[in-house]
Amino acid sequence: MTEKLEIKAVDRVEILTLQDNTIDLVQQDNNAVVQRAMPLVGLEVKNSILAEHGFSSLITVTDDDRSRCMLFDFGFSEQGAAQNADALGADLTAVEATALSHGHLDHVGGIGPLIEKTGKRDIPLVVHPAAFRNPRFMKISDDFKVFFPAFTRDKAAAAGAAVVDVDRPYPMLDHTAAFLGQIPRTTGFEKGAPNLFCEIDGLERQDPFDDDSAMVFNVRGKGLVVVSGCAHSGIVNTVAYARQATGVDPVMAVMGGFHLAGQDPDRVVAPTIDALKAIAPTYIIPTHCTGRLAIQRIEKEMPDQFILNMSGTHLTFSA
């Protein structure tokens, strides 16, 4: 049984997406929750926002007029998320801590330039120790394997991060945020990625993604905001564990990569959406590796809750 995690209810959670897979600078759907990136510098249309196959976010938590900031994931390329931070005018010097959803390149590639923009050294990097597991690869066949670049403790240190190894729910930002640690697998339909492998004790096996984790916040009177990176543990498992760990049942927002791209539409995608509908979040925001077809299906089946995310999108969840 998980020991209950103390997480403070806050007035506001803001999530600025520094990197996602898509961008549309003429979306024109701004409202109280959603603000899109503007292509303007002064009155000229020349501000470019980059989309890459990756995820990175700047998260600000505000309570009683005090704001705390963190980075969750760092995007794919070395400069992509950092360039977007500049284009978006994001001030990273307020960042107090960072966290990593898992050790794949599309979430850790830009760690160096982003931490450099904080102006800090030895900034905490909260991460499950299995994020440093190597080698990790996509197995096409026994003779054809595509490897992920290794993420190591030395690379984290060189980027300016001080690693905090966490395998269970861990409070951050003075208990206004929490890293979930290792997420239990309880659903029958969320089985991970069958083509992603690693070596453990010299033996090749399907990657168990022990390191896959998420961030959770609690908006006063509205419920949890759960943010995943890829949800290799399963997004339904992730939300269930967030509820269990915090003791908070209502869910305001479920956001992140749901890793439904290429998954069986009937055996995986459909039951995932059914379970998300049963959770009944106020907002559902699929990103990154959720995949075009699954995102379209989520939008169709949860139209009033659905928000289209993209690079540069600023979301505000308020009490």
Automatic annotation (TrEMBL):
Q: Does the keyword Hydrolase apply?
A: yes
- Domain Metallo-beta-lactamase as annotated: residue spans: 56-164
> Among its keywords, does the record have Oxidoreductase?
no
The record's annotation in SUPFAM superfamilies points to:
Metallo-hydrolase/oxidoreductase (SSF56281)
* Classification via InterPro entries: DHPS-like_MBL-fold (IPR041712), Metallo-B-lactamas (IPR001279), Metallo-beta-lactamase_dom (IPR052926), RibonucZ/Hydroxyglut_hydro (IPR036866)
Q: Which domain of life is it from?
A: Bacteria
GO MF term (any one):
transferase activity
Write out the entry's keywords from A to Z: Hydrolase
Q: Which residues form a coiled coil?
A: none
Pfam family for this entry, one: Lactamase_B
Output this protein's name.
Answer: MBL fold metallo-hydrolase
Q: Which organism is it from?
A: Desulfosarcina alkanivorans
